[in-house]
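Chapter summary example.
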Amino acid sequence: MDTLSREPSETLLQIVRTLTQEFGDSLANETIEETVRETQHEFEGARIPTFVPLLILRYARQRLTGCAKTSATARMLEHRR
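The structure predicted for these 81 residues follows.
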């Protein structure tokens, strides 16, 4: 299942919307969508898919938090120059 490029599920669209609300001020929408897509790909073929959407949200949020911190640090260092 290709999550965001071909008819994404409503659940994945909601994950993207949630993360865009959280990180949209500091990260590009494309970064958020790509992170969700990559995270979803890791869970393809899960034997017990019940909690996969929750895991996608959690793992993608962790990755985006790291990206946002890195981005904020880079901006801070640029302003010091």
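To summarize the output: Residues 10-80 form a domain with the Helicase, Ruva Protein; domain 3 fold (CATH 1.10.8).
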